[in-house]
Amino acid sequence: MKKKNICFISNYYKTQVFVEIAKTLKNHNIESFWIIPNKKQYDELQDIFPINQLLYIGKKEVLSTNNSIETSIDFKINELVYGDRVLKHEPSKWSYDYLNKLSSLYSNFIIENNISYVFGELTWAHELIAFRLLSQDKSLNCKFINPHTIRIPNGRFTFFTNEFQSNILETENNANVKDDFIKLEKPAYLALNDKLLAKKGTISHSLVLLKNFILRTNQDANDPTLYSNPYHQFKIRTAEIYNRIIFKNFVTETKIETLPKDKKRVLFTLHKQPEASIDVIGRYYENQLDLIHNIWRILPKDYVLLVKEHSNAIGDRDFSFYKSVKNLRNVYLIDNKADTHKLLDSISAVFTVSGTIAYEAALKSKHSFTFAPTFFNKLKGCKQIAWSDFKENSLDNLIKENTEGLDHAEFSKWLLQNSYEGIMSDSFGDPRCVMSENIECLSKAFLTIID
Q1: 169: domain range?
Q2: For residues 146, 151, 155 and 159, what is the CA-based torsion angle, rounded to 10 degrees?
Q3: N- to C-terminal Cα distance for the chain?
């Protein structure tokens, strides 16, 4: 293979996975460069890669640069700041200047090193700046690719080519095609999340958080993905603990068996927030209380709306949020531990921003609607909608007309052809992803794309 240069954007525990892939790719004459926002990871990567292959984008380093490239690209900086879980709380005097200066650094780095691909997540504003630069400036001859799990079936991932993880890089060179029929299964990360959740709220966990705050563990004021003011982080964590206590002791959820038997059911599942799945992928639909209100507006008298909290989000929302939900007529806050697969059997439709629940519903031949575009909108009965659809249709008509899309067999063939074996996760959330067998699978898929 002709020598090629690629770039990874480091991202906490995902970095370890990218490092192992990079080591394998080097054996195939592929050199890896890096964009790094965190000083600790910058220092660690210097022990593995030559320093001239590393671009450190700490706040001070970026803000001190004077070079700039004239560009007609509108990066929508306001949108990026508003959707970034850290920058939206930071002083605008540095955050806007920081983002505006990034594009010239990226351009120079890509041109000087003849980089063909940039691989990274699409969570932080600095990642989205890179994506928008490469999408619009074709002269750089470089593509931004987002490797990410396809959720169902487990143990497979794909390469997304847009910000919403709705467009998949299609290929005819996938020699590792799994000839099978996609079956409904619970995403593996849910079980792993449950183990992490069990630790939350314990005294030991709270003491660890307190110790980390006092000792400033893993704090880096120069990292654009971390709060400049440590007390802001402390305030957020304290609020989470308080909200979790209030939820467990004062928020009453409705058991499924006590719901009205003579009413049709519509389900809306809440997203954890902040989270890329809603703040980035689902932008302009990130106010989840507004979503509930607007679904409720078109709710016929013979329907009830079920709202289900994400078990990993308990602590994110305060008591007033749940009170507002429960005050709505024919709206029920249901048990967050309820089995969603069983619940789907009794509902007429599902609404979500970009959640897997819509994918699961469609696999059970249930009607589902997403506000953000998703790759599983290709599946029959899983439709992306907008507020205009609410204004112009009744709920019954939305359900009745939701008939387009690939059937189960066609969707399975398409998705399996354009996805690959391998667990694409992070080493903290799923330690299996850095095992040698898995790295081999991931690397084979990267080679297919790069070649």
Answers
A1: 4-184+420-450
A2: -20
A3: 8
